[in-house]
Amino acid sequence: MEKNENAEQLLKERVLRLKTATELKEPDRVPIFFPTETWLASYTGYTVQEIIYDYNKMIKAIEKSIQEYRWDCVWGVGSIWPAQIFDAVGRLDYAASGSAFQVPDESYMTPEEYPELIADPYTFIVEKIMPRRCPELAKTFPRNAIALGKGASAFALFRSQMGAVARGWLQAFGIPLLVSGKTHPPFDMVSYCRGLKGLLLDTKRHPDLVKEACEALLPISIKYAMISHRVTPGGFSTVFVPPDAAILLSPSSFEKFYWPTFSKLMEAICEKDYNAFMMLEGNWEPYFDFLAQLPKGKIIAWMESTDMEKAKAVIGKTMCIAGDIPCALLGYGTEKEVIQYTRNLIDKMAPGGGFIVCSDKEMISHNDAKPENLLAVTKFVKEYGVYRK
């Protein structure tokens, strides 16, 4: 990779810009990034299958976007997981189509097994859930052990190689990782065992067991955040926390089943002086009063289908807001339309700080953005999004 002579200075500027925005202050200008995900495949002339099976093609795709767009951070090196891991263990619920990953909703436990999950969640997940989700792990010894070894080796190789690549990007391009750790809220971890449909039924039929299961999984959720997180040199990165199932609950059910352990998880992350990055898919307006109670100046909330001005007014004093250029506009609109939308967005959201420009969704299909629109909006933000002291 060709080194940028100003890489060290660029890194300092970008990290400071992201930290300042996260702390709800005004940086030199509005930060910008786009979560490119599997959109990178078509952008680079590959198929999704090529980049999930070939690390080098995945790396080339990410590097091309870094060099051409020069955003303030890269989404993360681990956002596209390699297929070899899942092939090794026979996992069937993680399939790559022509444009994106699909994870069907399936149940891998019965309501009668809640006490076993609650009593020892780690053992239950390893010995019961993983073999059910990954058929090769359910085979008799030594086949299951070989499958586990292959999967673990593929994961270790991926982590090692991509970690080295990310360090190279820091030195060559001066670009930090936005996401450098991940965890899941306890309620979502229960859904990965029970399935969303089953879990939502359980909140009516077995409410006490659902609450106990969430409490039992909280220590694992917190530990996952701690051991996965790596601070980017320069001092900024986040733990990715996607509260996937939250908006399937009414506000009263959210308060009863989701909020108690979710809030504890977020507090634990922030108490470690880590930053958190929440992907808030769908409309989160009914839950704003809860979000406003989370630790101040440590969280980025990435909005999708939410009134951005209302978000700024209600939770903007607690967390940095990221969003919300529609992928539909990036993919099908004109440069003029994209720039006009971005101008209005900056006018509404940038004053006072605590705002980052990005798309409203992960970019997974080639239809999610035209490269020329991304270039146009990036140039515009760097010029128009400057804070004038």
Model description:
- There is one protein chain.
- With 389 residues, the chain is an alpha/beta fold.
- The protein has a single domain (15-80, 177-384), classed as TIM Barrel (Alpha-Beta Barrel), CATH 3.20.20.
- It is built from 17 helices and 8 strands.
- The chain has helices spanning 7-22, 39-44, 48-53, 55-69, 83-89, 114-119, 121-133, 143-173, 186-194, 196-205, 207-228, 251-271, 288-291, 308-314, 327-332, 335-349, 371-384, and strands at residues 95-96, 101-102, 179-182, 238-241, 275-280, 299-303, 320-325, 355-359.
- Helix 14 (308-314) links the parallel strand 6 and strand 7.
- The chain is globular, with a radius of gyration of 21 Å.
Query: Could you give the order of strands across the largest sheet?
Result: 3-4-5-6-7-8
- What's the CATH first level? Alpha Beta
> Biggest sheet, in brief?
6 strands, parallel
Q: Estimate percent helicity.
A: 40-55%
Shape: globular
The poorly predicted ranges are none
Mean pLDDT: 92
Alpha-carbon Rg, integer: 21 Å
Total number of strands: 8
| Count of individual domains | 1
Question: N-to-C terminal Cα separation, in Å?
Answer: 37 Å
CATH-defined architecture: Alpha-Beta Barrel
The CATH topology label is: TIM Barrel
Class per helix and strand makeup: alpha/beta
Total helical elements: 17
**What is the N-to-C order of secondary-structure elements (H for helix, E for strand)?**
HHHHHEEHHHEHHHEHEHEHEHHEH
Measured by DSSP, the beta-strand proportion falls in 5-15%
